[in-house]
Design a protein that fits this description.
Layout: E1 4-7, H1 12-21, E2 29-31, H2 42-51, E3 56-59, H3 73-94, E4 97-103, H4 126-141, E5 144-150, E6 153-154, H5 161-171, E7 174-178, E8 182-183, E9 186-187, H6 188-200, E10 208-212, E11 219-220, H7 221-232, E12 237-241, H8 261-265, H9 274-286
Parallel strand pairs: 1-2, 1-3, 3-4, 4-5, 5-10, 6-9, 7-12
Antiparallel strand pairs: 8-11
Length: 287
């Protein structure tokens, strides 16, 4: 690995990237978050890369409050679009390789076949629209790098669906979870491995490559919650409900499964099965 700058280093993916990069011999890693590098300030980014020997930028920072974004559009676009433009333009000027993380929310989910990278995005929320705008501004910058769309991210760090279900499962006799939204969870540690694999192949990538990554398999949120509780040995009834029974401010894609053929076949990235990764993390959290 070359000298790497991680933005959003305090988040789930940022923490997993740090864990992984600790094992890389001779790899200089700069871990930053908004307290040490405000990526909404183009000048700060410029000064940082001028002062440090950076070769790769991994942007793990994002505005991810999906429902809050409906009323806070300015902040969502500032972080998910404008900050990406800042990073991409600096990467282009300094010939750096940029890895940017996007989302399944760039699609509306009104299909029945796994999304390929070339499928036309149709976001149905402010969050999804702001993330798509970030993708577009990176492509327009002329920089070199990859956009990785991912879905249902969880880990042993921060706040996420798995940790919430495990906590609520200990506190309640039953939980109601939607069963008519289908997709695939992504363990942030597996995504971190995929990112480093792509960074090692950076010299072969020209322009901006868009890729899809999640864990293998297809499940509902209901199945995801039920399995997590079963692995943890928590006795809590999980009841399946319709999305209409659990209204949210922002619309969610009812189907967000990815076709993973490109990242596996073209770049040789290994994709673990969702249940195997979930078992690993639930067991770790249970300890």
């Amino acid at each position: 690995m070359k000298s790497t700058l991680i933005t959003g280093a305090h988040g789930q993916l940022g923490r997993c990237l740090q864990d992984l990069l600790k094992t890389q011999d001779g790899c200089q890693v700069y871990c930053t978050d908004v307290d040490t590098l405000d990526i909404c300030d183009a000048g700060q980014i410029e000064r940082f890369v001028e002062a440090h020997p950076v070769d790769i930028i991994i942007n793990a920072a994002a505005y991810t409050a999906v429902d809050k974004a409906e009323d806070d559009q300015e902040a969502a676009y500032r972080i998910n679009r404008d900050a990406v433009r800042n990073l991409a333009e600096v990467a282009q000027r300094h010939h750096l390789f940029l890895v940017h993380i996007s989302t399944d929310y760039v699609f509306d989910g009104h299909t029945n076949s796994p999304y390929k990278e070339e499928d036309t995005p149709r976001p149905c929320s402010v969050y999804g629209s702001s993330k798509l705008a970030g993708e577009e501004t990176m492509r327009e910058s002329g920089c070199r790098g990859v956009i990785i769309r991912t879905s249902w991210l969880y880990s042993e760090y921060g706040h996420n669906f798995v940790k919430t279900m495990l906590q609520l499962g200990k506190e309640r006799e039953s939980l109601s979870v939607v069963y008519d939204q289908l997709g695939a969870p992504t363990y942030a540690g597996d995504l971190a491995h995929a990112i480093l694999s792509l960074c090692e192949q950076a010299d072969t990538i020209k322009g901006v490559e868009t890729l899809h990554f999640s864990n293998e398999g297809s499940i509902s949120w209901f199945e995801f919650a039920k399995t997590a509780l079963e692995i943890a040995g928590i006795s809590c009834t999980v009841r399946p409900i319709l999305t209409s029974e659990y209204p949210t401010k922002a619309e969610r894609p009812p189907f967000s499964l990815f076709n993973l053929g490109k990242i596996k076949n073209k770049y040789g990235v290994k994709v673990p099965y969702w249940r195997d990764s979930l078992r690993l993390i639930v067991n770790k959290l249970s300890k």
